Amino acid sequence: MRDLLEAERAETQALIDRLTQGIDEVSAAREGDNSDDEHDPEGATLAFERSQAATLLEQSENRLEEIAEAVDRLNAGTFGTCIDCGRPIAEARLEARPYAAKCVNCAARG
Ligand SMILES: [Zn+2]
């Protein structure tokens, strides 16, 4: 399970690196460009792409936090136990989402 989490972490980190780089590139492309976002179709597209990338980046950073917490639980010996109800999390769920902190029932409740 530790390997699974490490793989997931590496993948998420790579995604964050790509997104950060992408946002930097879009920002750099905007520099020295005095065109008005509102009236420049290309500017609007760039702004849209940048906000999409920013949203994805935020999600990935949250994911990274969830993974770090899962590693903590692994070290504490509580991994695989729902943080809400204390029941074991189904193995199939952990295989799909090794960073899952809650069982299906508690996750569904939010
Ligand atoms: Zn639960």
Write the layout of secondary structure elements.
Blueprint: H1 2-30, H2 41-76, H3 91-96, H4 104-109
Helix pairs in contact: 1-2
The protein binds zinc ion.
Tally of alpha and pi helices: 4
Major β-sheet annotation: none
Q: Quick check: average pLDDT?
A: 88
Shape: elongated
The helix content is over 70%
Which percent range describes the beta-strand content? under 5%
Q: Compute the gyration radius: what is it?
A: 19 Å
For the record, give the distance between the C-alpha atoms at the N and C termini, rounded to a whole number: 24 Å
Q: Got a strand count?
A: 0
> Structural class from helices and strands?
mainly alpha
SSE ordering: HHHH
Q: Can you tell me the residue ranges where pLDDT is under 50 for at least 5 consecutive residues?
A: none
Ligand roster? zinc ion
How would you describe the overall organization of this protein?
The chain has 110 residues and is mainly α. The protein has a domain at 2-62. It has helices spanning 2-30, 41-76, 91-96, 104-109. Helix 1 packs antiparallel against helix 2 (41-76). The longest helix is centred in the middle third of the chain and has 36 residues, at 41-76. 10% of the residues are buried. The mean pLDDT is 88. The structure holds zinc ion. The site of zinc ion (ZN) has 8 residues, from helix 4.
